[in-house]
Design brief:
Largest sheet: 3 strands, antiparallel
CATH topology: Arc Repressor Mutant, subunit A
CATH architecture: Orthogonal Bundle
CATH class: Mainly Alpha
Distance between the termini: 61 Å
Shape: rod-shaped
Low-confidence stretches: none
Protein name: Site-specific integrase-resolvase
Pfam families: HTH_17
Number of helices: 5
InterPro entries: DNA-bd_dom_put_sf, HTH_17
Oligomer: single chain
Mean pLDDT: 81
Structural class: mainly alpha
Strand content: 5-15%
Number of strands: 3
Helix content: 55-70%
Order of helices and strands: HEHHEEHH
Number of domains: 1
Radius of gyration: 20 Å
Length: 84
């Protein structure tokens, strides 16, 4: 049954579906695909997006704020332990 549910999920979708999937405006997706941030497949006048590529692109856009936050907390902790 697990294989069937994976096959039911669309892999290649149009820009409106990507917009809904990512909560990004269609114009942003067009811009990012032109800049190479979102890989796409152009077939005639149609543009299709691979949801696996979209997931990877979105993951690459994440800010690594937790690493900075941990470093800042360590520095503040060191300052407090030194009585500063």
């Amino acid at each position: 049954m697990k294989i069937e549910s994976e096959l039911d999920r669309e892999r290649y979708v149009d820009i409106k579906t990507v917009s809904t999937y990512t909560s990004l405006p269609v114009k942003t997706i067009y811009d990012w695909s032109n800049q190479g941030k979102f890989p796409c497949i152009k077939y005639g006048r149609r543009i299709l997006f691979d949801l696996q590529d979209v997931d990877k692109a979105m993951a690459n856009l994440k800010r690594p704020y937790l690493d900075h936050e941990n470093t800042i907390n360590k520095i503040i902790g060191d300052l407090h332990s030194n009585g500063i």
